[in-house]
Amino acid sequence: MNSLISSLHLKNINFVVRSLQYSRSNLLANEYTKSCTSVTCGTYFFMLSLQAKNLALRVQHSKIFPESL
User: Fold this and answer.
1) Residue 66, Cα to own-chain centre: how many angstroms?
2) Domain count, the chain
3) Does the reported pTM lie above 0.90?
4) Helix (H, G, I), strand (E, B) or coil at 1
């Protein structure tokens, strides 16, 4: 049962990581077509990178300590 819960958590985290990557690539693709100040874009990129790093660390931690999920 615990491994099933861990598997579901990892699938959810992987989905969120893919969503973040998609959002970032969308923003990169539309960077020159939308009116967006460098501060706004920079802040958005920074927040996306922090969220992605946080999720990557949680995935690594869950592989080492699956019971912590």
Assistant:
1) 19
2) 1
3) no
4) coil
Give the count of beta carbons closer than 10 Å to the beta carbon of residue 3.
8
Provide the CA 18 distance to its chain's centre, in angstroms: 7
Note the pLDDT tens digit of each residue in 10-64. 666 666 666 766 666 666 655 554 555 556 666 777 777 777 777 777 777 777 6
* Separation CA 61–CA 56 (nearest Å): 9
Range of the domain at 23: 1-68
C-beta of residue 48 within 8 angstroms of C-beta of residue 17: no
Rounded Cα–Cα distance for residues 39 and 19 (Å)? 22
* Side-chain half-sphere exposure of 64, counting CA atoms within 13 A: 5
